[in-house]
Specification:
Helix content: 25-40%
Order of helices and strands: EHHEEEHEHEEH
Strand content: 25-35%
Radius of gyration: 15 Å
Distance between the termini: 25 Å
Number of helices: 5
Shape: globular
Largest sheet: 7 strands, mixed
Structural class: alpha+beta
Low-confidence stretches: none
């Protein structure tokens, strides 16, 4: 049985290990264990983890900007230890529910690299809508990279839940 919960400081190293996986590094900025611990302690940010039966960290999501008055949150990162096993979908589904049902936010948004087709498809399957492109938003070793902004609103989340 999997469990989903807010991360605690003891999860920081497991999250940092996932950050360093080869399938994660092209799409998610690496963070140190100390940076992750600081984020876990910051009320404006939230790491959430999906754990396996043995308590191992299967993946994490990282929410940012939770302290604003505009009732929005940014899904800054989502990554799993082993892709292709459904953990990303489970983690995203539970993260979205957490944002709307627990944090009571109105909007959850993210930006994703255009070439990350699996992530874009996952977000779309979970109700995220593409809103546009942030042109040359990040400077990477290979040069400037644009991203696609996607979001889901609380009303869309709740409408989808009411459908059979």
């Amino acid at each position: 049985m999997q469990t989903f919960r807010p991360a605690h400081p003891g999860d920081a190293e497991a999250i940092a290990v996932i950050h360093r996986h080869d399938h994660v590094t092209p799409f998610v900025s690496e963070r140190s264990t100390a940076e992750i611990r600081a984020s876990i302690a910051n009320l404006a940010e939230r790491y959430l983890v999906l754990c396996g039966e043995a308590g191992d960290c299967l993946g994490f999501s990282y929410l940012f900007g939770l302290d604003g008055n505009d009732q929005r949150a940014e899904l800054r990162q989502l990554a799993v230890a082993s892709p292709g096993q459904g953990h990303g979908a489970a983690l995203l589904r539970q993260t979205v529910a957490f944002v709307f049902e627990h944090l009571l936010k109105n909007r959850l948004w993210l930006d994703v690299f255009p070439q990350n087709a699996p992530a874009r498809a996952l977000y779309a399957r979970h109700g995220f809508v593409e809103e546009g492109t942030l042109r040359e938003a990040y400077l990477l070793p290979s040069g400037f990279q644009s991203t696609i902004v996607m979001s889901i609103l609380a009303r869309d989340y709740y409408a989808a839940r009411r459908q059979p």
